[in-house]
Structure formats: C-alpha cells, structure tokens
What does this fold into?
Amino acid sequence: MASTSVAVAKTAAGPAVKVHPPASPFAALLRRSRFATFDPKIRQTYSTPPSHAARGSWGLKRPLALRRRNAFISLPAPFEHRAQFIEWTRAEDEVRFIRRFEEMQVRPRMTPKTPWSKTVGLKNSTNWLIDSEFAHRYEGPEAEEPDAFLLQEEAQKAQEARSTLQKKTSVDASLEEYGNAGQGNYGHRRALKSSTSYKKVSPNIDAMLPHEFDAYVRRLRHLRPKFQEYLRSHVVEEKRNLQKLQQNLDTLDRESTRDPTKKLDASNVRSIIEDTRKDALHPSTNLYQLAQMPDVSFHRRFIEDHTESQFADNTNSNGVVIEQRPHQVGGLLYSHPSLLHSQIFSTPQPGIILQNAHDITAPTHTVFIASFGGLSPTIAEQHRGDKTPLLNHNSTEGVKRENIKRSVAKMRLYPGTVSLERPPTSVAEDASLTGGLEDVKLYSQAMVAGSQVMFSQSNPYKPGTMEYVALQPVTGKGERGSGGGMAPTSSGTTPLMTPITRKMNRSGALSYPGTVNVRTSREESLTRWRSKSWAKNVANKSGGAGAGASLSVGKGNSQGKGKDAGEGKGKGSEEGARSGAGAGEENGQQPDLFKTLRTLI
It folds into this structure.
C-alpha cells in the first residue's frame, strides 16, 4: 500500500509532458485547418531528435545510414519501395534556405505575366486586407470577394446619406442622437473594388490525366440543355442592352440640338450599338451554326459561370465544391508581413557584394550583384554605402584577399521587391525532373545597412515605445526645438516633454542615447579658455629646445617637461610655466592648441 502511494506521488510530481512546437508553418497549417491540403506526390521533408539520429532512427521500418544531428531528409509518398528499400535524399539546403528567408521577414510576391501567375490565376493575386482601427467593425463577404450587388447597395446607401445631409440644414440642440453608435461603428467602411469578369475560374484541362479529361467531357455533354438555356438568356440580355443603348442615343440626339458637345457622345454610342448588333446572337441559331462562328467564346463563358455557381452554391451540401487555390508563392512564406513591418522589424544579416553589373531597364544606372541568404539580389548604387564589389570587371586587379572585408556588410532585403517568377518543380512523372531549389527563379533587391536609405529615418526608435512617441519632428538647421529643457539628440531632434516623460526624466528612468547639451558645454569651455592667461602657459621665450605645454584646470596644478629644466611641478599657471620649458619661437614650434581645445569641448 505504501509502495503504491509512493509510486503515485512520484508520478504526480514528475515533469509535465512537453508539447513540441510544429516543425514548420505548413505543418501547423495542415494540422489546424480543415481546408489546407497538399499533393501526396510532393516529397516531404522530415527531421528526427538528436537522440534518435545517433541510432539512425527516423521513424521508418529500418534505420538509415544518416546518423548526425541537425540533418533533414526528403521522402516520396510511398515511404518504402516494393523492393523493400527506402529512397531518401538530403534536404539540408532546402530547409536552411526556407529558415533564412523567414528570418528576413519580407513578403514575396508573384511576378505577373508568367506561367506560374497564369496557373494560379488573377483571383488569388489580390493582397490581403490588414485589419486596423479604420476598418469597419463587422466585415461582410465584400471584404474578400466583392460582388456587383454589394457595390450597388453601397452606392445607394451613400447617395441616401448625401441626400439626407443636404435636406437637414439645422442641427438638434440637444445632441441626444449623437455618440450612441457603439464601439467600432464610427469608422468609414472600406471602399469596395469592382469584381471583373476576367477573375472567373474554369477547370484546368492541361493538368488533367487522360481518364480525367474523358470524365470531364462526359460531364459537359450532360450540360448541353443548360448551355442552350444560357444562350437564350444571353439573347434576351443583349436585346435589353440594345434597348437601353437606343434610349441613351435618342436622349443624346435631343440634347445635341442645344449642346453641340453632345454630338461626340452620340457618335460613340452609335458605334457601340453597331458593334453590339454585329455580334448579337440570333434566337434561331443552333449549336452547329454556333460552332462554325469564328471568335465566339460563349462556351467558355458558360463553363466559367457554371464553375462559379458550383463554388458559390452553399444550399446543397451534396454538390458543394471547394475552390482550389494554390499558394501564391508555392509555400515559400505563409505569413503576410506588411511593408511597414519589414521596414521596421527586419534584422540585417551578413552578405557580400560580388560584382558590378548593368541594369537592362536603365543602362545608365550601375547595379551590383550580391550573395545574401541563399539569394543573388541586386543592390543599387545608392544602397551599397561605402562597400566595394569583390570583383571589378573594369580593372585588372582581380580578387584580392584584402578586398573581402570591404565587400562584406550587413544587408537586408528591400521591402516589396521580392518576386517569384518560377517555383520549384515538386511533382513530375520522372522523379529525376524535380530539381528542387535549382528550378526556383526569384528576383530581389537588397540594401546595405547604414547606407543612404537607412539614414532617411527621422525616428530611429522602435514604434510604440516612449522614446518613439516623445521624439519631435526634425527641425531646420539652427533651430532649437521646444523640448521643455531637454537637449537635442544625436539625430538632430528634441524629445517632446509631457508630464509623464518629464517626471521619468527627473527620476532618471528615461534616457535618450547620445543626448548631450552640446551648446552649453561648448560655451562653458570657451569661457574657461578665454579667462585663463593662455600666453603665460604656452609661450616662454626663455625656454630651451624642449617642447612643452601647461594647462591649469581646477585648482591650477600643471606639469611641464623639458630637456634643460627636467621636470617641475608647481601651483598656478605661472609656476607651471616657469618650471617647464615652453615651445620657443627660435625653434619655430607651436603647441598643440587644437588638441587641448578638443579635450575641453
């Protein structure tokens, strides 16, 4: 009984089970999200704890020959081959590249008009909306995908508000109806973007296998009655549009008799009517005649509308289709840091400027190619600071060992310049065609920390801190800021003194780096310098060939050295000058006055 209680006590007092963090952002997303998926054919990267790595245990049926720490391997979808062997490759380069890119805290973008951007589609290329205090409290579906109906509704509400404001000429004296809207209901609603037709999606027939394409064609044959109905509705819609255009044309013709400037608008509407009638579809047109017409895209519009209706239909749970949206940058970075976040919180990392190059878009500008974080970014002339390239093609010196230190510098990526042109090939029929990082094509720009751009920040403190809030804007040259007695900082600005900061400044809790009252100390030093009899201390014509200088500070103790008189000490400037030997005019030597002045100031 006693042993049981002791065992229970030991179990209760034992260390709690530690929950290990996810190995990567993708693993956390796949674990928490119900909609995040991935192709099983993509090779996944795995790691193992150091204690298991020493034994070659990677969670597979048999140990591997890789037995070192901080190692990573990539495995295909079937971990073990039919021939009972495991195919694995090293993945340290890929893992370290992703980790280095995450440390840079820069959001990559997708290069437009590239094969990858066409595959992803323009619907997925929209920027994320950043929540702020200026956004509306309750965001509806218009925050991500605005619809034309919502746009009309917002325009109608704005028109009604303007008309109500115009009618209401006087304000209630009681003001009881003001200030009761509630928390978060005073901000202006974010402007909506109009939805365009080119953002429609359709199945990608180029990525289908032969049996998938045959099944897709069979489904299209069943949609033939709906396609005919779509054509009839299109004819009716075109007829309505022609009637509206004709009414607008009649109105413009009547107004052109009084206003000659309306004739140009009438001619434009008349040309639109002619083009619409030329492309109009006759009600008696059958599918065979429609197939013979050149440059007709009714079938494509119908497929896009049908696919869009499947994604938007939430009433029928059996026919719900989740729209597939590939990641914009192929999983390079799952977070979305803003440009301001990258500008403030990105930490400079070491890099090296390799060589100079010429910009194709601007031949007169000189750029430099660097090696930074596994990338080869370009650095503009104004962003390289005082660093020189390691290799200069215009000289015959070549690469020297002493030039390496002048080429290495702390760098960081320029926010908003990282764009992905081609992601890695992860899935292919032949496994040898998956090149990994060798297939990636990234364009980026970097800048050296401490260059001209870095000095353009007027407030060097971290946003949100008391030093950041208390700093006044930069004043002009010669002006003194009203800092409540505080001296200007090294950046030329004066801290703004509030009751809180003034109290903390008195107690010594608030300190500004580099704060020194330069003007006061300089005036005191010059006054002290003028009050002393400088000629008696530094000019002694009776001295020998020795050089000396005496200075009385505080109580007037001074020291002097010379060849003839040796060393002597005395009180007062005169005694110090007598005991020492000054710089004689016969030798033409002058005392180092500027060095002494710099010591005082």
Q: What stands out?
A: The radius of gyration is 39 Å.
